[in-house]
């Protein structure tokens, strides 16, 4: 008779073998691209919540002025006005887009051909809770930076109680603060990429790239790929995150109840100028001349304010793990003015030293808390139904190792 130990070992290997073919299946939900790109977005027109020197324009004005456009090959783009001379402190026309759909999870893959960068410039792609005082429903910054940094920074913002899990192997980025609380002037939890081709000029010179985020019951995990290293499964519209390796950033359910702190989020894409982060850290960037207001008043300094978007695709889990579909066509998605447009600058930036080492002196890092969380190859035994029984143990192994 086979011993209990041998049965356990056999079942463990069966479970692990099953994982090789039991990848979670992500099915296409929404795609924003090409000539229909702008159909899925509203143009935000309220004053900038993060005090930027921008005037966000409505759709008709944006297209009339060339702030929203398509290239000759049909690639959609947005930009800040880079041709009008202003007095320092005057507001410059720009664009902030809010998706008409709300999301409570999914796989989000953004392919950018070009992104803004430069002294005083603050582009970002992020998610923002809709219909509540910020940050009650959370904010997730997927792509963000200021000045001419070269390393992307991810960040999450929540009400009190969401923290990072900094266990080794959770993610590859540089951790800032460990508290995602963004109330009362706190800055949220940022994780800085160790790759210096994930933001700004180097990103553009490499032909752009892809940023991916999973938001599910296990937490939030983010990856980034330059143009030459985009996985074939992404290019083939059949993403398998389990093959992507360790995420750059992660916020794990073991230390942050994702379903509690992040709900009903819109996608947001914006080109901001100065404001709380780019303006607040401007003087710390030695090679940026004068003041931020002076810099962005001169159009000669704004030759790189363009976002070119190949596509933004949203996938949802198929089968029993399926995430509820997004709520589409918000009556007026453009009126969600709660978000701070990415993080706010902290007066005690704990990650400045680390950031400057990565950025080779190109601007200080924002104090943020890096959240830990298992990527597909690092899924820890978090909140799994393991109870010591043989069969339950196998179920637990499948839960832990399959993605």
UniProtKB/TrEMBL annotation:
Residues 1-22 form the signal peptide. GO terms for biological process: glucan catabolic process. Gene3D superfamilies: 2.60.120.200. It comes from the Eukaryota. Residues 39-320 form the GH16 domain. Residues 345-354 have a biased composition (Polar residues). GO terms for molecular function: hydrolase activity, hydrolyzing O-glycosyl compounds. Residues 364-373 have a biased composition (Gly residues). InterPro entries: Beta-glucanase-like, ConA-like_dom_sf, Glycosyl_Hydrlase_16. This is GH16 domain-containing protein. The lineage of its organism: Eukaryota, Fungi, Dikarya, Basidiomycota, Agaricomycotina.
């Amino acid at each position: 008779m086979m011993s209990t130990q041998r049965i356990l070992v056999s079942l463990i290997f069966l479970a692990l073998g099953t994982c090789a073919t039991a990848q979670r299946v992500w099915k296409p939900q929404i795609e924003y691209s090409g000539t229909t790109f702008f159909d899925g977005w509203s143009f935000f027109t309220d004053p900038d919540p993060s005090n930027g020197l921008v005037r966000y324009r409505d759709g008709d004005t944006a297209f009339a002025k060339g702030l929203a456009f398509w290239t000759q090959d049909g690639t959609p783009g947005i930009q800040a006005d880079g041709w009008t001379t202003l007095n320092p402190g005057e507001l410059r026309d720009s664009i902030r887009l809010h998706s008409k759909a709300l999301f409570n999870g999914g796989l989000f893959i953004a392919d950018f051909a070009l992104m803004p960068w430069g002294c005083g410039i603050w582009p970002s792609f992020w998610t923002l809770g809709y219909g509540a005082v910020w940050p009650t429903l959370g904010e997730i910054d997927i792509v963000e930076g200021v000045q001419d940094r070269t390393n992307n920074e991810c960040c999450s913002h929540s009400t009190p109680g969401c923290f990072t899990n900094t266990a080794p192997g959770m993610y590859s980025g540089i951790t800032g603060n460990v508290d995602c609380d963004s109330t009362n002037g706190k800055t949220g939890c940022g994780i800085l990429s160790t790759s210096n081709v994930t933001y700004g000029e180097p990103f553009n010179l490499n032909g752009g790239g892809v940023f991916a985020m999973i938001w599910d019951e296990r937490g939030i995990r983010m990856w980034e790929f330059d143009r030459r290293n985009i996985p074939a499964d992404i290019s083939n519209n059949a993403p398998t995150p389990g093959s992507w390796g360790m995420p750059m950033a992660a916020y794990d359910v073991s230390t942050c109840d994702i379903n509690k702190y992040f709900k009903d989020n819109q996608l947001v894409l914006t080109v901001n100028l100065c404001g709380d982060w780019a303006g607040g850290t401007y003087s710390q960037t030695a090679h940026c001349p004068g003041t931020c207001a002076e810099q962005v008043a001169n159009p000669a300094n704004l030759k790189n304010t363009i976002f070119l978007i190949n596509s933004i695709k949203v996938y949802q889990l198929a089968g029993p793990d399926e995430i509820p579909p997004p709520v589409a066509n918000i009556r007026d998605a453009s009126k969600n003015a709660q978000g701070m447009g990415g993080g706010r600058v902290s007066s005690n930036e704990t990650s400045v030293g680390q950031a400057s080492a990565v950025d080779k002196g190109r601007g200080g890092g924002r104090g943020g808390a890096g959240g830990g969380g298992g990527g597909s190859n690092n899924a820890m035994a978090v909140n799994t139904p393991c109870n010591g029984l043989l069969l339950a143990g196998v179920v637990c192994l499948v839960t832990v190792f399959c993605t």
